[in-house]
Amino acid sequence: MKTPVSSATGRYRSIAQRLLASRAVTRILRNLYRWTHSRALRHNQVLWPLLRIERDGQGRLTRCAMRWGFTPVLTAFSSIRRPAGDVAHLILSGPSVADIGYSELDLPAVMGVNGSIALRRSHPHLRFAYYAMLDAGFVTRRRDLVADVLAQDLLLFVTPEVLRWIAQLFSPGEIRCRITVFEEVHQRAYMPRARPEQLARTLHGDLDLVLFDAHAPVHPLGFSLDPARGLFGGGTVAYSALQLLVWLGFRTLYLHGLDLHGASTSPRFYESADARLPSALDRQFDSHIAPAFRGASRLLGWRGLRIYNLSPDSALDESVFPKRHWTTLKRHALPS
Question: Under a CB-based contact definition with an 8 Å cutoff, are residues 62 and 56 in contact?
Answer without folding.
Answer: yes
